[in-house]
Amino acid sequence: MRWENLTGGPGGPAALFGADAVVTRTVDTPEFRGITFHEVRARSIVNRVPGASRMPFEWTVNPYRGCSHACVYCFARKTHGYLDLDTGLGFDSQIVVKTNAPELLRRELGSRRWTGAHIAMGTNVDCYQRAEGRYRLMPGIIEALRDRANPFSILTKGTLILRDLPLLREAAAVTEVGISVSVGFTDTGLWRTVEPGTPSPAARLNTVRTLTDAGIECGVLMAPVIPFLGDAPEQLRDTVRAIAASGATSVTPLVLHLRPGAREWFTAWLGEHHPHLVERYERMYAGGSYAPTWYQRQITRQVHELAAEFGIGPNGPGPARRTAVPERPVPAAPAQLTLL
After folding, report:
1. What's the whole-number mean pLDDT along residues 207-233?
2. 97 φ, ψ (degrees, to nearest 5)
3. Which helix (H) or strand (E) holds 205?
4. pTM
5. Fewest CB atoms within 10 A around its CB: which of 16, 92, 186, 328?
6. Sign, Cα dihedral of 52, 57, 59, 60
7. Structure confidence at residue 20 as a pLDDT band (50, 70, 90)
């Protein structure tokens, strides 16, 4: 395993962690059977997003690498290859844990160089995946942000975020806090095959309801909308109706995108479960990682219309900060609904 790829060197980039700070633990319990945790002591935790990125934020915090949610389409799979870890099953079961994330964040927020910029979390891998139940890194992270009144946002599929509801309320009293839950569809059959390690869509929408009832505004990232499997008009209607019923303050659709690393894993899954769709996907994504502009615009328009019908969108409660991973810009599309 090439831990040294991320340990810096003479004339190289700053090290993320040292090879002597890595501990590997295989945990054989019913909850974590088959999962290996690589515990590291990171040397930095607040990461600047590259300037060329389309991300609508500049700084992120990611306490984990790899994700037991095992979403077959996850764009972050390629990052596991930097450590010579497998981007398929290895991404789902080899979890890198930055055990010193809370203390490191508190130190970096206290630096005279830090200006208090917004920090986005959950935009690479989910910070409320199952490993968080074991390592409990997020309470310390939220406390550090709260104590500095530093604005932040969280995007998650994990219901474990409710454990930290008291801390989120305390933070929201002193700074801007944006929460969004990802629910791309409510089809349980599709969920079990493409997101096997996640809480059910119904459980995630119950989480939205709990957060909003507690006074924490919560939007829904309707992602991904999966072509030919989750994009039928009745599926979109059922999903937006359920999102509206959850009390979500906004809904933002995001069509499936297939970057290198994720593309290969998703295509293999598609060939096993829906071989009749492989050729259609090859045509749809022949131009690269993103679906054609016309298709993105069609889905956006349908979701906007349904959101208006069910009473969610710009006229609802005030929006919080956006943290969505953006699609390729779609010219002349209707105004985007606010995510966070």
Report:
1. 97
2. -115, 120
3. helix 201-213
4. 0.86
5. 328
6. negative
7. low
